[in-house]
Amino acid sequence: MTCCFDPVDNIPISPGNSLTFCALKDTASAGGSHTITTDCVCHGTSGVSGTSGISGSGGPSGTSGTSGSSGVNGTVPSVAWTPYTPTWDASIANPALADGDIRGWFTTVGTSCFFRGQLTFGNNTNGGTGAWYFGLPVSAIDADGVQAPASLLDNGNAWYLGTMNGARLGSLIESEIQWQDNTGKAIGIDKTTPFTWGAGDRVLWNGTYEIA
Known about the structure:
The protein has helices at 15-18, 166-169, and strands spanning 4-5, 12-13, 19-28, 34-42, 82-84, 88-90, 101-109, 112-120, 132-135, 147-154, 158-165, 174-180, 186-188, 202-210. By secondary structure, the chain is mostly beta strands.
């Protein structure tokens, strides 16, 4: 027996695919006669209110459907960014921020952390000794996955391109920023690389990485 119809193509659907139940419906007329019909309700997987049906979770008005919460016409909730202060240290002797400024922002979505940060030198900022390391807002699941573009400003002179390369240090909580010299070699930035850092000079980074 076939009693349900596909709501899109209007073709019969077999009971095994979509039928939940059928019942006999007795309709009485004014003259006292009775009409017996089969009243079928399609609530199965591919039925009207089933998972892939019109009002099911995967249907047009369902959660992932066109007008559902995650569909084309749905509303994607905004995610606020949280300020944080990145740590700043060095491989030999740690820097001293003094009148400089370091700040960052991050947000997490599932197992992804989106982050950005910046360091600005002040008149009395001391860059310490050795390559610089900058703290991450949330522990990474794998240091190799921390790969983010960075920009280095020699204030009043030029911009340089760099990369925050977590694999270089191998830490899950902080990362080195490297600059590529004219031979193609990547070098960790420090107080004299790729220029002598002074007041107004800046380093900025922005990226994403996997978290637990």
